[in-house]
Batch of 2 targets.
Target 1
Amino acid sequence: MKIKTLFSGIAIAASAFSSQAQQLDITVTNLTQGIYYTPILIGAHSADTSLFKTGEMASEQLQMMAEGGDISGLSAVLSSGGADMVENPAAGLLAPTMTTSTTLDTTDGNMYLSLVAMMLPTNDGFVGLDSWMIPTEPGTYSMTINAYDAGTEANDEIINGGGAPGVAGIPVAPGADAGTGAMGVTMNEENNYIHVHRGSLGDDDLAGGKSDLDNTVHRWLNPVARITVVVN
Amino acid sequence: MKLSINNVYVASIFSFVLLSGCNDSDSKNTDMDMMEPAPEPVIYNYEITVSNLTYAQPMSPIAVILHDEGNFWTIGEPSSLALETLAESGDNASFIAESIVLSGESGTGMLLPGMSETIEISITDNQPGYLSLATMLVNTNDAFTGINAIELNNLLAGESISVTTRSYDAGTEKNSELMSTIPGPASNGAGEGFNEMRDDLDKVGMHAGVVSVDDGLSSSVLTQAHKFDNPTLRITINRLN
């Protein structure tokens, strides 16, 4: 009896030591049927670092990711904050309904998990998880996450290869299922704070119309991704 | 007095277990069965209340299933033929007849928007591990919603759990929204239900919602009224005993 009490006392003490290093198995599923994710960035970091905050303006590095799928800026942010990270676990695009898995060893103090990837074809839409506190208790944790708009580019829905920060337009529709010749849905981005994406409009005219997106293929409803984290 | 009867009962059950474990002849087992009263069957009884949270998407007859293993769909995998049939036509007969089903029930008919229905399901002598539920949003090409293998093991008699559900796309029929492809009332019965051709992604994913003629799909038979968002159902699972 005494031994048992002692033992559980140690277990409690260990699990309360929340900044300990951990080994995580992370699985990400693209729940949509028509949207691709550009290379995914996953980081375990301290409370002093983040990739994005809803209701705040996007950083330059987030803008690079959300408009063009370039995660190098955000990975530099993670590095300088002493974070542990996985870059591009799917080795390229994560296609609709597909799943990718990876492992992440965290170091002491990196208690929060974040994830981002651009959604294609969109102007500056991204899927994101911001600073989820990694449980100390071993187990399997599952969550779904939503689509956000970086607020840095007008959602014109014109596919013209424009992926550099500040350049209008959508880089590409990887499914090769979009149109051309659209006039554009809007030229304005009036909300410059990171917000829940209102969804794409699309249209039924692949040779013109307002949008190059196909309204039966490139729309979505939240949630758009599922993340499962196994804490070992 | 009561104590000693209980003791006798326990002792004889014990000897029965020993005997039947010995692989004795059939006749001997039959003798034992005649000597001992058969144990009371244990019935596990659940009451499932489903509410349709949409504006104008009737739900096809709800399929409710108890099972101990497996699941009924996986994101990224093709739909089973039974799921395709349910999601394209609303016919749940083969879905309820899937091999992993221990007990299956169907709702009495279409569950209309805003309406609720309570379906009872039970099983004898086998506490079920999971409950699944599926129904088609009938004013769509192949949208369905439901529960995929929720665990029941921790649900005690008298307890209940409530969940809301999201909508999925079976991936087996393109979302054309053409009158000829929508089986629900939006097409006045003119639309085809099940068609074994898989003219789409052939993978289950989350549904993107319907577009409708009012929102830019000129060939759609659907209107703004048929649009929906998540969640689409509220479900309460109440374990009676």
Target 2
Amino acid sequence: MEDLSKYPLQLDGNDVPVVRFMNVTKSYGSLTVLDQLDLDVTEGEMVSVIGPSGSGKTTVLRMLMTLETINSGVIYVDGQPLTHMEKKGVLVPADQKYLRKARAKIGMCFQHFNLFPHMTALQNCMEGPVQVLGMSKKQAQERSEELLSLVGMIEKKDQHPSRLSGGQQQRVAIARALAMRPKVMLFDEVTSALDPEVIGEVTNVIRNLVNEHNLTMLMVTHQMGFARDISDRVCFFFAGKIEEQGKPADLFGNPQRERTRQFLSAVKEAD
Amino acid sequence: MFDWRWDFAWEILPRLLMATVNTLIAAGAGYAIALVLGLVFALAQRTPYRPVTFVVRESVEFIRSTPLVLQIFFVFFVAPQFGIRLSPWASGMIAIGLHYAAYLSEVYRGGLESVPKGQWEACTALNLTPMQSYFRIIVPQALPPSIPGMGNYLVGIFKDTPMLSVIGVAELMHTANAIGAQSYRFLEPYTMVGVIFLLISLPTAWLIRIFDAWVRNKMGMN
Amino acid sequence: MSYWSFLVEYGPRFIDGVWITAQQFVLAALLAIAIALCAGLMRLSENAASRGLAIGYIELFRGTSLLVQLYWIFFVLPLFGITLEKFSAGFLAVGMNLGAYGAELVRGGIQSVPKGQWEAAYALSMSPAKRMIRVILPQALLNMLPPWGNLLIELLKSTALVSLIAVADLMFQAKQINGSTFMSAQAFGTALIIYYILARFIVTPFMRRCELVMARKMGRG
């Protein structure tokens, strides 16, 4: 077991990041997926994560959503530990109850949407606000309809997911995640499972969120052009570490590391 | 058909219909036990406690691998050895309920396993409690794929009730045997019992198919 | 009386019973397989008459109880001049009943073969019979072996019912021993364990073996 006393119980100071990965390691058996990762995301920032498959980029999001347990290191959200909790003046691994409270600030959209198939688009969006936030049905419905309008899906609100195209399902999934009013939104390869002709309708929704709303976002994507367009910062992952990061213009225009160059030219060729 | 006597058939029809009611009660009660107990078996196999999982898994396997008629005899004759007096009805319901609970637990298990992992992850992302996740998201999705299997075993339990005749439960088969023994006529009672079974099990199977389609449609799952 | 001396005294009778059960099982299984193939193929036939016949057979045997069918064959058929001795009546009833369930497995197995295989065989100008025997059935067989494993366990369990028309199988012996000794737990418990061993350690491993051999033959091992 790692000595957790070296980690602060909470982050203080003026510019506490919304998300901080501190020395985070995740491995499955002998395979290390994240290797002593440090990563900060500040308020309102849009960070894209790119890299070859198996580089650990999806794991970053899954750790933040607490879908995976942590091997060592601590993740802080809003200055408070997410993966750990305080007990007698030191950090200990968080229990289920604490995790549930802590992850309320995080929302996530998945590659395969994961909409609930037995509920309509509207019911999908209302489920969290009613069941978790304890909102009245009326309030939740108002909020959900507003969000479904935002993603352009209000006309299909009474349809079940099986009646919707992939792009439409993903837009509903975005509305569902937003309905929980998260501080941080995670997009995990949200366009990877889509047909080429509907990718635009999903990226437009995300673009709109970046421009009009001051959300903090982390996005794993294979679409370099899109990442370049909308990100404040791009992180290139390689073998469980951040190989290079910077403003999109710098990272795409003038990559400093050999591996980044190789990856970007390989991706360009495939396009 | 030669030798078929309609007057005799009419004469025994009321007795057979009365016995049909008993058959239906036996099937219904046995099925109710199996539905609940089966869920217990299925959930017990999903607990993190290894010994519990192992014992339940092996018991289910044992019950499924041995003949129901033997289990009926076992319960009926062995319980008194341990000082428990069970009526034929009680032992029959225990045996048939246990037997089908083992089968239904497999149906439930398959249903629960058919729900994609992404659904659990979406529950986490929406911060639902484990209870909410199970009962609002997972079980509703596990049910529709379980309906055909549950329906099959409903018809199956109904068709297995004649085995209860071996310990003297007065259902259809037992009554037909009694009529045969009294009158030395077997053609009418056994044929009529067969027809009664057909008349109940075929429409039931058909209704289950319709119900299955309706549920899938209702849940937006086709 | 200890369980050990019970076994010493009545062991031979259990063995006699197992022998009869094994015979009933093998004969009924062969019959069920033959019926399942015929009825399953007829069920898919384009000829309405043979399709109707197969549906009628399947629904009749699946819609009523095995016990009813067994009694009917044993007690009623003689009235029509067909008298079967109990041993034959036993495995005939079990085989005909399980054959109806097997027919549905055959149908499902054939339908699970991808449409492209039919089209490929068609494109090679194979005759319908050749297409079925050389292309479709081998693949269907591989797909339906696992459910047939379950069906054979059901068949083994079903043979216990032949004891009710006094075929001296394992179940029958257990009942007799119980009747003469009143040692119900020992008599029925031993029979339960023997059925379990037959199912779990003989029938199931045999079917696994068949699956493996088939898979290897089909290049999927």
